[in-house]
Amino acid sequence: MTFSNQLAILAVTASIFGCTTSSDHTVNVNLTATRQNAGQIANTILYSQGNQTGFNFFISGIPNGTNLPLRLYTFINKGSCQQPGPVAYAMNDQVNTQRIGLSGWSYERSAPVAMQELLSGGYSIVVRTAPDDGNVDIFCGDIRQGAR
User: Fold this and answer.
1) 112 inside domain
2) Which helix (H) or strand (E) holds 88?
3) Whose CB among 14, 26, 31, 53 lies 3.0–4.6 Å from 115's, allowing a Cys bridge?
4) What gap in Å lies between CA 58 and CA 116, rounded to an integer?
5) Could you tell me the sign of the dihedral formed by the alpha carbons of 113, 116, 121, 127, in that order?
6) Backbone angles phi, psi at 83, to 5 degrees
7) pTM of the model
C-alpha cells in the first residue's frame, strides 16, 4: 500500500470517527511511528465524555512478527514523546483491536480525566505492543491545545 493510500484511509477514518462521536469538541492527534514500526501512520481523535476523555484510534500497521489477534496497550504519559515522563493514565481495561479490511486497525479507549486537563499541556499518548510481543512502543503523539 502506498503512502498516499494510507493517508487517504487515515483521513476517511478520522472523519468517520469524528462524525460518530457525540461530543461538541474533538481534537485530532497524529501519532508518529517509532523506529520499531517505521513507515506506519496512526492517529487518535479525542472527545469529551464529561469528566472523562474518549479516544478513537486508527493505526495503519504493526511490526512484523506481532501476534494476531492484535492486542495493543495504550498509555497517557506525562511529558512529551521527546522527553517522556511517567505514566499518568493506563487505558488497558481492554486491549483488543478491530481489523479494518487490509488498511489497518481501529480501537477505542477512555481515560478518567477531562479533555481540558489533557489539553492543558504536558501529556503524550503511547501505543505499545503486548508483553508477549515485546512491550514495544510503536507510536507516540503529543497532546496539544491547538491540534485539530
Assistant:
1) yes
2) strand 84-90
3) 53
4) 22
5) positive
6) -130, 75
7) 0.82
